[in-house]
Amino acid sequence: MSHSILDTIGNTPLVLSKVVNQNPNVKLFFKLEGNNPGGSVKDRAALNMIQGGLERGDFNTDSKLIEATSGNTGIALAMIAGIYGLDIELVMPENSTKERVQTMRAYGAKVTLTPAEVGIEGARDYAEQKVKDEGFVMFNQFSNNDNWKAHYKSTGPEIWRDTQGSITHFVSSMGTTGTIMGTSTYLKEMNKDVQIVGVQPADEAKIPGIRKWPKEYLPKIFNPNKVDQVLEVSELEAREMAKRLAQEEGIFAGMSSGGAAAAAVKLAQNLDKGVIVSIICDRGDRYLSSDLFDI
Predict the structure, then answer these.
(1) What is the pTM of this model?
(2) Residues forming the annotated binding site for pyridoxal 5'-phosphate?
(3) Among the listed residues 251, 30, 264, 281, the one whose alpha carbon sits nearest the alpha carbon of residue 176
(4) Is the dihedral of CA 72, 76, 77, 78 positive or negative?
(5) List-wise, which residues carry N6-(pyridoxal phosphate)lysine (predicted)?
(6) How far apart are CA 268 and CA 276, in angstroms?
(7) Which residues of the chain have pLDDT under 50?
């Protein structure tokens, strides 16, 4: 029995692909991070960043907290900050889906929208300016070691346990890169031959949650040595796979999950045998006001 909503973060299901993977010699599993209480994989990192910061005394209930987000991290921080009585402002581009904005506000966070044309980089610049000028404390998920360590402590061990150590390939979209960094670190400790596959958008592709960062914005927690292979996916591939996951596998997820799944399916087609785990990072209901699921 769970005594707190926080106890329900993690231990998400691992389900076997029945349709989109057509290679009978490869098992493709999807890890359903949308089953976290805040609806995404970011619950793990947000919990670890808040608990770690409080334990170190980086901030307290009198602090003014701020974070730039494309959505999922903000929702997770808003949910958990409220439980701890923390005051938080979340900054995101104005073209973010209204479900994300409304969910953050429902949890009690202040939401500031920055111009769409400057993207998440502009939101990050705004937050950093508030830190300099007004004494805000920023989590900075892009350079916060508590981000990747959350996945070292939970996501990696869960995957190893639930595949009985048989995993051969791990596939994850790369945004802040926390998920892939932490999970890679753990899995490589257990078996150095596990292949870590990162997913990035192809040039000009716009896939929320997956980025090919300009050098000056590259997450400081990212270590390229922990990724064995990078696969690129187009926006069309990500969109089409998100729809296929919903219609053929019963997995309702967003575009970045579609991108990761598309890369995992392509990977499976080229293997003689293997056990692949691909992260499904959130739920599709976060995208209903977008055109992602339009017929």
Answers:
(1) 0.94
(2) 72, 175-179, 256
(3) 281
(4) positive
(5) 42
(6) 8
(7) none
- Bind-site residues: 72, 175-179, 256
List the catalytic residue out of 31, 42, 149, 188. 42
Q: Exposed e or buried b for every residue in 30-43, given b needs 16+ CB within 10 A?
A: bbbbbbbbbbbbbb
256 noted as active-site residue:
yes
Per-residue confidence (pLDDT) for residue 295, from 0 to 100 = 65
Count of residues in the chain:
295
| pLDDT for position 294 | 82
Catalytic residue among 17, 256, 257, 278: 256
User: 85: how many CB neighbours lie within 10 A of its CB?
Assistant: 8
What is the set of domains in the chain, with CATH numbers?
5-35+154-287 (3.40.50.1100), 42-138 (3.40.50.1100)
Quick: pLDDT tens for 193-222. 999 999 999 988 888 778 888 888 899 999
